[in-house]
Amino acid sequence: MTKYVAFLRAVNVGGTKIIKMDELRKLFDSFGHRNVETFIQSGNVIFDAKDSRTLEAKLENQLEKALGYKTEIFLRSVEEVDRITKQHRLEPRENETLHVVFLKSEPEKSQIESLKQYNSAADEFAVVGREVYNLRHDRDRSIFSNSFIEKIFGTATTRNMTTVRKILEKYR
Hints:
alpha+beta, Alpha-Beta Plaits, 2 domains, four-stranded antiparallel sheet, 6 helices
């Protein structure tokens, strides 16, 4: 068994795709996963499952049947989450925030090059594997948002690095 974190996209945001975490936990339990927990209301599910290359797609299909709408999942093992939290390319200082964007697959070189043009005094970006990191130096001038990233890379979901670290600390 492997411990996974499922980061769900656009759950409980802007009054759409509302799902209580208790219900989400019960659904993952009914799918046959073990030790299912949720973390805050933004759709983070931690659970144990057998290793499977098709687990992400299978979960998306199961949730769509259960909820009646499509929800994208970005699945990472706890070991991958540990690696993500240990990146040292971008380190926030006082009044700065670090975000991690989860992608479905490693981006193409042209997509990474396209993102580089947006590095500025307000935002700094780095891409490592299937993750995009954003160091927001100036919140008021920042262009960073999940929809901005999706214009370059396709479907994605974003978490503040503080949240990702708390998940790791609690469920490692």
